[in-house]
Amino acid sequence: MNTASLRLQPPNGTSAKPQRNLNCKNLHITTSGPRPSNRLRMAAVEGQPNNTVYIRNLEERVKLPELTSTLTELFSEYGAIVDLVAKKNLHAKGQAFVVFDNVDSATRAIEEIQGFDLYDKPMRLEYARTPSDATVKAKGSQEEYERHRQRRIKARESRQERERQEQEALRQKRGADAAGREDAEMGVDQQQQQPPIKKPLKGAGLKSTSAAGAVVPDEYLPPNNILFLQNFPEDYDVDELSAVFGKFDGFREVRLVPGRRGIAFVEYDKEAGAVKAKEATSGMVLGGEGGAGGKPIKVTFQRK
Length: 304
Known about the structure:
The protein is an alpha+beta fold. The protein has helices at residues 64-75, 103-113, 133-139, 142-193, 211-214, 238-245, 271-281; strands at residues 3-8, 20-25, 52-56, 81-86, 96-100, 117-118, 121-122, 124-127, 226-230, 251-256, 263-268, 285-286, 295-296, 298-301. It is elongated and about 80 Å long.
């Protein structure tokens, strides 16, 4: 549609609210569609109330200028927008922040837009975990703003380092698996080609020095605060995994691995939360109707 009135209607199965007509010009958007999966019964408002709305599950293929214009048009109906941030880097794709000039506007926007489709994807809204740069700059001193900015930079660097370690752990695991398969294949060939070897005398044996022999199996890795998930249904996303693992104390986030399906990392604030989550979810069957036809997931601690 080139020029249209955008009519917000509740997802199927929800109680109807008064309809809002938004005059959206030149915006190719829709805000109706199926109700989110029953596995995602999210609260209407999450987090500590503040004036910044965090939006996720946005369509990543939409160009940034168009997305920014669309969000501005949509959210300006709920109050004055101080700032709107949508980024195009790989980690932040599909996410945006809308900063209002007051908390009430942010609350109304979250309550009324939660779950509505934008570009055929249901939006997930919640309060931002930390104040926006614009809010700190407007309400605090320059010194407070600099401290806030430095904390944000350190948090981003810490997240990038965790992601680098996770990628390295995956690379090492793939290398170890490949080495183990190669050793196994070589062992079978040698058994077929060589005559039986006499059993050595007690004490005369040597410890294995192969790379595969030195790798600790996943099941015996020491505990830490990050879990490594495998074998979950490929159609599961961050929200559905968060619904499962977010029940345990200290839950921080779920991180999918770009380009790899069926694997993810779940991070907790402390090791104890990860231990409880692993004990409760190892072998849990996900997918299918009520678990029927699903498959058990594999949950281990991240390899360091």
